[in-house]
Structures are given as C-alpha cells and as structure tokens.
Amino acid sequence: MNRLKDFLVGLLLRTPQEILVALLRLLLLLLVVLLVLLLRLWEWLRWLLRTKTLFPEETEKPCGRIPEVLVRRPDPSIYSQTYLAAQGLPVTWNNPDIWVAPAANPGAIEPDSYHLTADTDYIVSVRAHNASTDAAIGVNVRLVYRPWSFNSPDVTPVETDAAGNEVVRSVDIAPLGAAVAQFKWHTPALAPGEERHFCLQAILSHPLDANLANNMGQENTNVHSQNPGFVSPGEVLPLAVPVFNPGRRERGVRFHFDAYEINVDDSVRLRLKTGHGRARLRVSDRIGHALPTVEPPEIRREREAVTGHRAPGAARPRARRSKAVFGRIAFSTPKSRFRIAKTRYMGFDDLRKLILSRDYSLPPGMDVAITPETPAAPRLAPTDSLVPNFEITIPADAAPGSRLPLNIRAETDDGALLGGITVYFEVRP
What we know:
alpha+beta, Immunoglobulin-like, 4-stranded antiparallel sheet, 6-stranded mixed sheet, about 20% helix, 3 domains
C-alpha cells in the first residue's frame, strides 16, 4: 500500500514537471533549429567565399580529400636572423648553416667567409633543418648574393645554368633532421687592392611549410684581391654600409651594436609533452545538442551512492532515506566522438634564458660612432636609401692575434629588423 501511495504521489508531482520540461524543450528546439540553420548557412557561405569562383571548374574526378587535421606539415628552417631577432634573441651574420670551401679542394673548409679570394671558384654549402616531426620532402633551396648593405633589394643568383637561369636545389629532410645543399660560386673579379663585401642569402620553400618566418638566413662574406691585412690597437677604422627601406611607408632607422657570437657548447635537452583532449565541435553542433533533460531522483540517488559525490547544486543528503520525488533539470553537454593528442617539445625556453643571461656588450675601449654626416635618427621614405658612415675604435689594450666581432643591427623605429652585418677585426700578431 505504501509503495502504491509513493507511486501515485510521484506521478502526480512529476507529471507537471515533465510537461513543463517538454514545453521548454519544444520552445528551445524551435529556437535551436533556427539558430542552427543560420549557422549552417554562415558556415556554407564562408566555405563558398574561400573558393576562387562560384562555378565549378572543369577538372577530372577527384580522388578524395584528406581532412585538414590529417595533413602532415613539415617545417623547413635555417638559422634565420629575422626570425630569431623577432623572438628577442641576439643574432650574428656569421651563419652556422652556411659555409664555404674552395672548389679545387672541397674538403678544406674556410674557417670563415671573410678571407675569400676574388675571381675564384668556391663551393657554398647550405644546411637546411626540419623543425617538425613530419618529413620535409622536396624542399627547394635558393642561394643568392647581394651587395654589402642593410637589406639591399638587388640580388644575384650564386649559380646559373648554361642558359643563364638560376639553379635551385631540392633536398629531402627527415623529421627533426637536416640536409645539405651545395652551390658553385665564382667570386667576382676585383681590381688590384680592392676589397668588397657580399651578403649570401639562402631561402627555403615548401608548399606545406608550417612556419614561413624561419626560411631565410644570411652569411656575410669578404672578397679581396690580396690579403686584407690586420688592425692595430687604438686604430680608428671607417665603415660605410648602405641601408634601404623596402617598405611602403616612411620609417625611422636605429642602429644597435653588440659582440654576440654563437657558443658552440650550448645545448638543450628536449622533453616531449603530450596533452590529450577531444576535437572541438562546431558551434552549430554544440548548440543543437544543448537541450534540457530531467534526471529521475532514483537514478540520481544510485549515482551518488556509487560515486560518493553529489551533483552540483544538490542538497546535502539526510541520515534517513530521501523521499525526494522531483527530478533534477540539467542541460546536456555535447562532446566530440574524436579524441586527440597534441605533442610539443619543451626545453627551448631554458636555452633562451641561458643565451639572454650573458652580456654581449662591446669590450671596454671598443667604440662605434656615427659620423656627423649621418643624421642621428635618420628617416627613410619608401624605397629610399642612405649610406651611414661609422667609425670603429679598436681597444688600445687589444691582445695581439685576437679577433674582435662586431654586429651592427639596423632596426625601424617600431623595432622591426631591417638588416645587419657582422665584421671581424683581427688584431695584428
């Protein structure tokens, strides 16, 4: 009799609640259907606007489309001064990924690119990296040189074929690996006693490149017709370097000087971090599944007894058996059926902190001044150029036989890198 009484009481009390929830679901369903239709229309219009034409192109029958989430993305990269400077790191234009060797003796790699002989055949090696865990197949490597400058727009291919066309190498790079492309370079002929600087520029390209900002690296070279000689302690040396503004608006130029060099002993221990989750549903799918439901009190009591936890907002259980007959109204939380895992290598921040913890100021007694002929804060109109003149003072106590590095960076007034040079001064033994 008591069980029949509880059943009738529960039926009479929960029936109005079920009817109220049903009406609420119907009202929300109409609103959700309308909203989902509008979102579907917006998603379709966005897809349509991404196509080149509103009419289908005459093509062969497609063999299927790989979903975007499954496309493998390599990351061809090189020691890129522009990319590293954008990360706030010091840079050098003595590129570790570009080196030169005489063509007559390819095994005799030059210790640096600052003592090259004019009118001579050299082999230039370019090392391309792959910063992705996906293989980089068919990476195009270009190598050009341009006049001594900050960001000159004039470039010349290092190697050309019999028809005068630029030679472009192609390399395959394993995941997190590296590959080397080689070019033949015949250095320009110079007049007796003449000395000229050139900037080698290596450019990588791949149709699925995940990061286009780390594809260009530069190497400073010094070509001479005879031994360039040495500097003496206390000597003041003039240096003129043209600077160009390739942008479409006027820019101010600032110069920065430092003695940064790459420390070959620096290393980093990478740690693979994995995060698990679910693929995100589209907005229309999430809204379409967010409908109210009623959880019967019997099911709620059984779940709380098994888990030992109450649902959010549930009343604290009493010592005696609960006589609650009302169900709990809740909104369903839709989840994607696809589980995903994202991986990332950690450890680069430790190397970054190590590099930034050092002092790369010029040694005591070494000074770089801009001559009065050059404005202190020059401004360049679009496509305009300027030739600032620098005066470098060698320290009076410079050790005989030592080598002093100097990096000069040209930046815009908003902090963007225009270009830079690296010069080495060898003190007379």
